[in-house]
Amino acid sequence: MKIEVTDTPSESELAAISTGLTAFNTADVGPSGRQSLAVLIRDDAGSTIGGISGYTAWGWLFTQWLFVPESLRGQGMAGKLLDAAEAEASARGCFGAWIDTFNPQALKAYQRQGYAIFGELPDFPAGRSRFFLQKKLPPR
Fold this sequence. Notes:
Layout: H1 11-29, E1 35-42, E2 48-57, E3 60-67, H2 77-91, E4 96-101, H3 104-112, E5 116-122, E6 129-136
Parallel strand pairs: 3-4
Antiparallel strand pairs: 1-2, 2-3, 4-6, 5-6
């Protein structure tokens, strides 16, 4: 057996890790029910120009990416995207949502949406903090 460090893992190598961890977690705490969730912003031509990418699992919504184009910022678009994602997560039986950011404006937007900080990682990136936020979702 040997340990190898690489910055170019193959899809099959990543799949081996994912499959092993998924099997372990399923045996430990039960199946996650993981399901992708996206909320898209489309322009008049139908092209995706922003939105949310995340997933639901074990009763939680995780917003992995949230992007609002510059031209739509300051108009409550992040809140509208989160509302849509949270509604879908609630419909899927989720009771909580979490998100993280190191952007001060995004932090304020998430707090306005009802998210509360539960953790902070200082100097990620250097000179900033990465904040982890959570929110209880209403039953639907």
